[in-house]
Specification:
Length: 245
């Protein structure tokens, strides 16, 4: 069987998947809440990481060390930047991740980590400063599944932040730094650890809100997490599509 690990920051972002896969608690991942399930041709581990980059990096390290997955999938909800083809309830698929906060505030404005000149990762012929590459094949297969199953999905760069953008002005500032279709609080950390361990990584987010002046009456968190888990369950149930024939 192929081994896949799915991570999200909260139980709510995993509950539908846990129930549908009939997952059972797994005790072999240290402090992490982890569940195990079997799907056709697939050994599935589902892990709750906690909120933010530090928790996500810690969890991804434990999971890569102890479980050696063939694919690491990070999921949950995210806020979409307007004008990039995704709205509330849609699915965003990452083609790269970005540590969008890490950098230097200079008299001439914000600059990225390349100004410091010390990469976050160096190996396999590449130097990573803010932008973390993701392998294209898992994302391509996810988009094919979305099209086949009638989901609205878009592919593009993701931005990982420590402070969520609660104003349109802040969102515009982030996009001036880096291109992106949505933001979240864990993805770049998971992608970074996966890169270190040489594990293919896929990130999928259900869109709960637009990046605009914060108005939670316009959010739909339940719909976002339900749709992305429904999408993911169908994707996982087809390992030929997940990994290719």
């Amino acid at each position: 069987m192929r081994r896949v690990v799915v991570t999200a920051s909260t139980r709510m972002e995993l509950s539908q998947l846990l129930d549908a896969a009939s997952a059972h608690p797994f005790s072999g991942a240290g402090h992490l809440p982890v569940w195990r399930a079997e799907l056709p041709g697939l050994e599935l581990f589902i892990a709750q990481t906690g909120l933010g980059k530090a928790n996500a990096a810690c969890a991804a390290t434990v999971l890569c060390e102890r479980l050696a997955p063939e694919l690491l999938i990070n999921t949950g909800c995210g806020g979409a930047f307007p004008g990039f083809g995704v709205g509330v309830g849609d699915i965003a698929v990452a083609d790269s991740e970005c540590f969008a906060d890490e950098g230097v505030l200079t008299p001439d404005g914000w600059r990225g980590l390349d100004l410091i000149g010390i990469p976050l990762y160096e190996g396999r012929g590449e130097r990573v400063y803010n932008r973390v590459p993701l392998p294209p094949e898992p994302a391509r297969r996810a988009l094919e599944h979305a099209a086949a199953e009638g989901f609205v999905a878009a592919l593009g760069p993701f931005l990982t932040v420590s402070t969520c953008s609660g104003t349109s002005r802040r969102g515009e500032e982030m996009l001036r730094r880096f291109p992106g279709i949505c933001e979240n609080m864990e993805g770049a950390a998971v992608a970074h650890v996966a890169l270190i361990y040489g594990v293919p990584c896929l990130e999928l987010r259900g869109i709960s809100n637009m990046v605009e002046d914060r108005d939670m009456s316009r959010w739909d968190l339940k719909r976002a997490v339900a749709e992305v888990q429904r999408f993911l369950l169908g994707f996982l149930e087809r390992p030929d599509g997940l990994f290719g024939s």
